[in-house]
Amino acid sequence: MSFDAQAYHDHAASQSNFMASNTLCKQISWQHSANGLIIVDRDEQTPFIGVVTGRVSPFNLKCGTSGDYLKKGALEKAKYQLHLVRPTDKILAHDFDTVIHNLETMQKAAGTTGDHRNMVIRDMTGEMLHVVANIFEPRNVRIPDSPHGRRVPNAPLMDEVTDKWPIAPDHEDDFIHIKYTHEAVPLPVFQDGKAIQPLEINHALEGALVEIYLSIHHWHFSGYDSFQAKMEKVIILHPTASIPGKHHLPEPTEGEGTEEEPPHKRTEKAGEASGSNV
Hints:
CATH 2.40.50; two-stranded antiparallel sheet; 13 strands; globular; disordered C terminus
């Protein structure tokens, strides 16, 4: 089934959460969250959930059940991650460019260092939007991790999703240590109105044209500003769109280096902002 980009754009542009709107930055502002800043609706002062459309790059696509976890650090901090790149359709490509412009305006408003990291990324292929979501969230009530504790009357029970989470065999030991304090949260990815199962998500997303609902966050660290586009929901508009293999490099021949060199992950430096409004 063909995808009508013009019809999609016309509908998306009529919505208040359209992140490619030329007036978006008048609708939103930064506000304090529990441990940083978050973009909110300026009038309602509620978290703003925006919508952006793009192609999912194969570069560092890690939306499996272990996400970006590489047995370094804590499994409970693992994240789903993907990079959105410019769609091939001209009107959607223009929308994507406008989203990047709006996001950079947001960064300038909140940033204090001029060094903005982790959200808008540039490399030799152009701009990418780095999008993430937590795989595990802390439980409100810890689950007993011993047979004796589980026999206590009214002891909290393990939820079915976490209990049956299809973790990679290499990570099973790490998972056992966190599943009593954290619960697994499936990435909400939908196609044709149906949820994609966790083990199928990575394959389904690669190369697809998607619509992502996201929130925008900011933290200040010594010497730089960190921004995060957090996925709230993903809708596959068209599977495996025609994507040039920009990030698929030929296998090195004997004698050549084999280490993959990641692209530069900083946006161009911007001036310091003077206020909290975008």
